[in-house]
Specification:
The protein is α+β, with helices and mostly antiparallel strands. It contains 4 helices and 10 strands. 24% of the residues lie in helices and 25% in strands. The radius of gyration is 29 Å and the shape is elongated.
Length: 284
């Protein structure tokens, strides 16, 4: 009989532990919903009426665009077309470009290059970065998906870092007969939030945005009120830089802690025994 009581008590304790575990997992699952939502594409479609209709001709004159905008530009074959956009930590940007060619043209190769805030050329994880348009082709489409932007990196590494990114679109090995032919270009940048799997221990003091060093220096100079900030870039993510402090890593850390606590409670319940029998007096 005593053995049956012990088994019954143990079964009740395990049942209680399972109920507590189920409740904890339910609550943590509800808390994980925002983290799952962060993994969806972060750039929402913006108003096309405010989208740029021209492109720059160098890094310093690059046309600023927001993620989710459909930028357009007209130019000539042989020109360099430049745009710039912001990318924050945890984002994986994808740049897509479409070049509309004239009715009559020779075989042309078009290339899409992406540079970070230090003007270092970034490799594409996947996508057709260079394509050749055969003679008479109406258009050519290019794409480049970058690696995930990291919040911090070693100085010797070429990892993407938060800040301004530059896009250069041009024709390579262009035949002389096609120089100066009119072309139209469309460019769009979208990003996917990767989440806690891309989090690192560290962050930049400032994003790699042109003019940020001069702006920080002038903001600390309170003696000369006539000093103006030389800001060369005005674009930034919708919710500010380094906005990705929240990630699903927090949720999985909480789940791990809850499971460890429940495992401790379950182990104690299994090993502590049934206690002092009722018929045995305390002083015995």
């Amino acid at each position: 009989m005593r053995a049956l009581n012990n088994v019954g008590n143990l079964g009740n304790q395990l049942t209680c532990g399972v109920r507590v575990l189920g409740s904890a997992m339910l609550l943590l699952g509800l808390a994980a919903v925002p983290a799952v939502a962060d993994e969806t594409p972060s750039a929402s479609p913006s108003d096309d009426s405010s989208a740029p209709t021209s492109a720059g001709t160098s890094f310093r004159t690059a046309t600023e665009i927001d993620q989710g905008q459909q930028a357009t530009a007209s130019g000539s074959a042989g020109d360099y077309l430049y745009w710039s956009f912001p990318a924050d930590a945890g984002q994986r940007p994808t740049v897509k470009a479409t070049v509309k060619l004239p009715d009559t043209h020779a075989s042309e190769a078009w290339q899409l290059d992406v540079y970070d805030g230090l003007r270092r050329r970034q490799a594409c994880q996947y996508g057709a970065q260079t394509r050749t348009a055969a003679s008479g082709t109406a258009s050519v489409e290019l794409a480049c998906t970058l690696r995930t932007v990291r919040a911090w990196s070693e100085q010797w590494a070429n990892d993407p870092l938060p800040g301004t990114y530059y896009v250069r679109l041009t024709a390579v090995n262009l035949p002389t007969s096609d120089l100066g032919l009119p072309v139209d270009a469309e460019l769009r940048v979208d990003s996917k939030d990767i989440g806690g799997s891309a989090a690192v221990d560290g962050s930049l003091a400032e994003p790699l945005v042109p003019g940020i060093a001069v702006k920080s220096e002038n903001s600390e100079d309170t003696a000369d009120s006539s000093t103006t900030s030389a800001v060369l870039s005005s674009i930034e993510p919708d919710d500010g830089w380094a906005s990705g402090w929240w990630s699903d890593r927090w949720v999985w850390t909480a789940i791990g802690g809850a499971l460890a606590a429940l495992a401790g409670v379950g182990g104690y319940a299994l090993t502590r025994g049934s206690g002092r029998p009722r018929q045995v007096p305390p002083g015995a």
